[in-house]
Specification:
The protein is of the alpha/beta class. It folds into two domains: 31-129, 3-Layer(aba) Sandwich (Rossmann fold), CATH 3.40.50.10860; 140-279, NAD(P)-binding Rossmann-like Domain (Rossmann fold). Helices cover 38% and strands 16% of the residues. It is built from ten helices and eleven strands. Helix 6 packs across helix 10 (278-296). The longest helix has 21 residues, at 8-28. The radius of gyration is 20 Å and the shape is globular.
């Protein structure tokens, strides 16, 4: 058996095309979807993400505004500022760029965004609505994982699902979203005693372990769907096991997931590649949240 690749790029483009039509319809009715991004300080690691956000919004016709605040702003002043954006009718969705400077509680700041404008679906009220099965906006990576599962066409109802990782960004919301689709999810984590017992009986696996090559083919049920959420940078070697060097003579790095792709693809029925799987769909899920927020405005 060789697994069929779940093409995240193709799925993202399909959803993007749908969003373009939705944005056009919203504008015709007088609603202008507007994502307002708040950045505190100028953390270099967030710059690439910010540029990608702006470009993605432009591609589907969303208004995008980036506001940079001084890194020495107090938590109280930052929350006060966000509450002002909550009251601004021209701002339909808000995202607070991470990381925030030391001394600012990210959870408190994210929860100061009203649920109806919470572009990342990450504040406490949004998560609470997810528990009750009526969330309009949910965490983007979790929604991406579920959309990739749906794209296979396999019936989710009644399926055994094992999720590796219990984060609020992936593990917990994925379990809740799949519960709403009548699957039977199990969450595994670092204290799970027999990981393979759970993974080998799963019809669907969502892996967010944070460790390169964590899940091998020997831990997968034949014919399972495997969604690899991991993004890891590891040294690159050639077929003979020798380090691959760049032009500067330093060893090259490559991006891999949490699943050992080569062994997993021999067992699974469907699998997401890394890169090109969960990543592009996560990006477009943020756009979908912005569009949904505009509908709620």
């Amino acid at each position: 058996m060789t697994a069929q690749l779940i093409d995240g790029e193709a799925l993202a483009q399909k959803i993007r095309n749908e969003l373009i039509r939705e944005v056009e319809t919203l504008k015709e009715t007088g609603k202008n979807p507007h994502l307002f991004a708040v950045q505190v300080g100028e953390d270099p690691s967030s710059q690439v993400y910010i540029r990608s956000q702006a470009k993605s919004c432009e591609e589907i016709g969303l208004q995008y505004t980036l506001e940079s605040l001084p890194k020495d702003i107090t938590e109280a002043d930052l929350i006060r500022h966000i509450r002002g954006l909550n009251q601004n009718p021209s701002v339909t969705a808000i995202i607070v760029q991470m990381p925030l400077p030391e001394g600012i509680n990210a959870q408190r700041v994210q929860s100061s965004v009203v649920p109806e404008k919470d572009a990342e679906g990450m504040n406490l009220a949004s998560m609470g609505r997810l528990v009750h099965g009526n969330a309009k906006l949910a965490p983007c990576t979790a929604m991406a994982a579920v959309e990739l599962i749906k794209s296979t066409g396999v019936e989710i109802r009644g399926k055994e699902v094992t999720i590796i990782g219990r984060s609020a960004i992936v593990g917990k919301p994925v379990a809740l979203l799949l519960l709403d689709l009548h699957a039977t999810p199990t969450i595994c984590h670092t204290r799970t005693r027999d990981m393979a017992f759970h993974t080998k009986r799963a019809d669907i696996l969502v892996v967010a372990a944070g460790k390169a090559g964590f899940l091998g083919g020997d831990m997968i049920k034949p014919g399972a769907i495997v969604i690899d959420v991991g993004i890891n940078r590891v040294p690159e070697y050639d077929a003979a096991g020798r380090p691959v060097l760049n032009k500067q003579g330093k060893q090259r790095q490559k991006t891999v997931g949490d699943v050992d792709f080569e062994s997993a693809k021999k067992v699974a029925a469907y699998i997401t590649p890394v890169p090109g799987g969960v990543g592009p769909v996560t990006t477009v899920m943020l756009l979908r949240n912005v569009v949904e927020a505009a509908k709620l405005a």
